[in-house]
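Wed. Picked up where I left off yesterday with Condensation domain-containing protein. The coffee machine is broken again, so keeping this brief.
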Amino acid sequence: MISFAGTRSGRAPLTWGQRAIWDAIRRTAPDDRYFNFGRVLEVPRGARPASVAYVSRGIGLLVERHEALRTLVGPGACQDLRDRGVLPVRIAAGADPDLVLAELSATAFDYADEWPLRVGLVTGGGPLHEDEVTHVVLVFCHMAADGLGAEQVVRDLRLFLLRGGLPGDPPPQPLDLARWQESVAGRRQAAAAATHWEREYRRIPATMFDLPSGAAERPPVRRAALSSPAIDLAAQRLAVRHGTSTSTVLLTAVSALVAEVTGHETVAVLPIVSNRFGRDTRTAVTTLSQEGLFVLGTGGSSGGPVRTRPGAGFADLLAAARAAVLRAYRSGYHDPGDRERIVAETSRERGVPIHPYCCFNDMRFTERATDHDDELIRRAPSETSLTWPLSQDELNCRFCVHVSDATRVSVTADTRWLSKADIERYLLGLERLLVEAALR
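Structure written out below (tokens, as returned):
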């Protein structure tokens, strides 16, 4: 057990990011373990040997420093910050850290009564090393942190292990962020974002995946993961050639293939935006990520299955996507209450529920871009492999693309709207589109 004692407690409304993930959690329950995620930190060589007591002390200081790690979901869905408590720890002697991570991630959090951080300490095993920690396993509730927030926790813990302390003032806390979002400046930001959502919701298709597949699986939600060096190499070349990011290249390609699959010439995708553009939020431990709204007119889509020979217009699409990406990023920092109102109003005006149900999440922390030679790109598809790592009953979306590292792209989809065979065709079609565009 790790005891902690912070400097304050209190209640406040959920932040915009917390409200967004809370809505997704409620729509996904009881399969909301889907949103758990974790990190494994190998104890740095310069910090060894690190005892269980020493590592536990560092984790306790982190929970005191970052208030999100001791914040529960209170009655009526609010932040319930506690100033003190005890955090359980799983001690695993000689265990595989990845197995401990899987074990700690396997069940949904109890948001009202369980601290939003689970901790596992892997020790060396045996009588001589049973108190020596080799790896720290951290599993986060998404209400407490997003990917970049979790990375800040890991950086802070590594720093403590090496230096024995955490210098500097704490970053902004969720309690304070929620109060800013209700201020005049916060409402000004919300209004600007709402204008984009309202304008685009009046012209996008009601939803992207609107035709039943007729081939639902049991359970219906499936994930296919493509390991593809070819996607990475091709995206890098296209980014260099067109002076943009690999993330924009991938989002544009994803949108082009959604148009091919669905027959909608105007594509609406909800990219996950980090919302860490301000200096005061870069190191904050909280969940700031929200969906933005990316809208791209592709033109010339004929529907039907994914084409194996994408048109030569990908460069034009990429040029059009630049401004659309910027608008999407700006719209990501929005008040979910405004968005709910806009959805209700436009759905009523148009006489049909409006929601894209089409998401894109680039989870990489860094990008690189090099103009690789033709032969390397041409040979790369021979190294492609596809697996099916997840199945479950509920998902808050119909189609989600995740980019987890440079060579790994996955699609999680509801097979009631996109069959398992079409999920596989989509991923392989994405690879073909990028390779052909890079070699064109």
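Quick read: Residues 72 and 80 are 5 Å apart (CA to CA).
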